Amino acid sequence: MRITPFRWIATGFRYLWNALDTGRRIILNLLLLLILISIVIGMFSGGPRKLEDKTALILDFKGALVEQHTGNARDALLAEAQGAGAKKSTQLRDILSVLDNAAKDPKISSAVLLLDDMGGSGLAMLREVGAALDRFKASGKTVIAWGSHFDQRQYFLASHANEIYLHPMGNVMITGFGGYRNYYRDALDKVGVTVNLLKVGTYKSFAEPYIANGPSPAASEAEAFLYNAMWKTYTDNVEQSRKLAAGSINAGIDQLPELMKAAGDDAAKMAINMKLVDGLKTRDELREHMYKFAPRDAHNKSFRQIGFDDYLALQKPKLFGDAVGVIVAEGEISEGKAPAGSIGGLSTSSLIRKAREDDSVKALVLRVNSPGGSAFGSELIRRELELTRKAGKPVVISMGNVAASGGYWISMSSDEVIADEATITGSIGVFAILPTAEKAIDKLGVHTAGTTTTWLAEPYNPLRPLNPKFAELVQSSINHIYSDFTGKAAAARKTTPEKIDEVAQGRVWTGTQAKERGLIDRTGSYNDAILTAAKRAKLSDYRISYVEPEMSRVDKLFELLGAQTAKILHDQFKVALVPTGIAPAAAQQIANDFSWLNEVNKGSNGYTALTHCLCTAP
Predict the structure, then answer these.
(1) What is the pLDDT of residue 596?
(2) Is 177 in contact with 564 (CB distance < 8 Å)?
(3) Which of 44, 215, 372, 438 fits a 20 to 30 Å CA distance from 53?
């Protein structure tokens, strides 16, 4: 029989298809087998051991302290499977739950605060954790803090311990707030890029790096006022916790070279001399010291203890009954849908609507930690809160590290606004930024031209000079949005737009300063917001219900499997990284700045009206 080329191709394709199908089934079966093995291990591992008397709680916070984990359970699981290099974060609500329950737990006698792996956090969130540590101590229990070194954030928490110990080769780095930014005006001029900034707000300084070679006097004034107030809050808290003389932190920094010489150039000894720590101990010496508070445990060959994650797993929140709903609004604000750990106008509005329509949720707390973003996305969220109040459910705003610009906008429809003393808020202002590169392409000999029926057919082309008519149109829109912003703020704060304008103009304030200027109702904690919401809803017996996006079936499976599966998958999945090296921090910052500039006008309107601030928590 003669074999034609077509028959040969068909035969080859059939063999290839069968091979692919067989391979697919093998891979899926292996993956299913791994999942089944992990489930069996989880079923028979027994979970955390039963607590015994005089157990020490190990508070080993991992990664940044956040209001909400980013991504989903599947992302977190696969990240953990990649190994030690994967980033991890610790939720504030988990820390508060663990500390407040441990304070009432007769089995827990002490806590060990290990902060080497703790990453970034804003001062407002640190104050929340510090207050929880104080409540734990007030119950008659002891907190011991130890570190191989302490950075400024870590030391703030350590200062709330009864005793602080440092490794003999360690140091305490308390540096102050503030820093430097890159300014790109000359660099952009050299490459032929013009950045057109249209704004309302004398102090709205977010886009200054693209149009200037240094900060404006208004920006410098506002930042100094903000940072000095926050620094005073930091130093006052530490000095009170450590029973140090007022002003001793600043005095120590001023005299640092002399103090270092007096300590024989030994940073750890200098920390003792400054009374920042109580002693120097290695890890094994810390373990010996802990036997004073917890008996020996033959199981782990150390003192009797339970880890943070294991103790958190023991907490069993109420699932039924009247509830105070909590929605976390963390990150930059976009217009559409956004995953956990960020804010989408549509997705966050959907969560508010879900809470409003849930009969068991009697009041709502919006926990805000956001520097702002899209004005339109912010208004979508504010409107849903307004509808929730009209439906008869109290709304209380709890401001975290940052609730500024768009973060303030979404806070304007509420029964009460509560911020920490160190919250960064305000920044009531609007801007649009429109970069053009006509000079750059002219240098390359590239030209752009065409025919349109009206000038609006292509109002903004980044390869052509900004059309003055379009600039005028955008500025009018920005003016209107600012007027809307100040008008809504005035209605919310029961004052006039003129009074709001006096403290607006894009200027940022601490929570204390915002209270003095009538922008918030009072300073207080996250727990204060929960209690206030419950009181307004006339609830005495209630649960806290976190209203979050529905997980997919796959995510639910991954969350069920947890870290046990990650350990199994660790050897199965490896991340192949191109060996390009790690860019220096300065170069990375430049890349981030230009990436933001490139992304800012991706919408369909030709420009984006932004209510954003330069106010990352220090």
Answers:
(1) 60
(2) no
(3) 44
Which residues, at least 6 apart from 160, have a Cβ–Cβ distance to it below 8 Å? 130, 133, 134, 137, 143, 241
Between 42-46, 69-73, 517-521, 592-596, the lowest mean confidence (pLDDT) is in: 42-46
Query: Is 292 annotated as catalytic?
Result: no
Answer yes or no: are the C-beta atoms of 143 and 137 closer than 8 Å.
yes
For residue 544, what are its two tokens?
């806290």
- Pull the structure tokens for residue 268: 């750890």
pLDDT of residue 317: 83
Query: What is the enclosing helix (H) or strand (E) of 481?
Result: helix 468-493
CA-based nearest residue to 134, from 242, 259, 206: 242
Task: Catalytic residue, from 378, 405, 414, 427: name it.
Answer: 405
Please tell me the distance from the alpha carbon of residue 8 to that of residue 302, in angstroms, as a whole number: 70
Catalytic residue among 38, 110, 199, 204, which?
204
Write out the two tokens for 561.
Answer: 């499997």
**H-assigned helices in 304-432:** 308-314, 345-357, 375-390, 406-409
Element (H, E) at 500: helix 497-503
Q: Is the pLDDT higher at 423 or at 453?
A: 423
At 593, is the secondary structure helix, strand, or coil?
A: helix
Q: What does the block give as tokens for 608?
A: 């984006």
Q: Are 466 and 196 in contact (CB under 8 A)?
A: yes
595 is catalytic: no
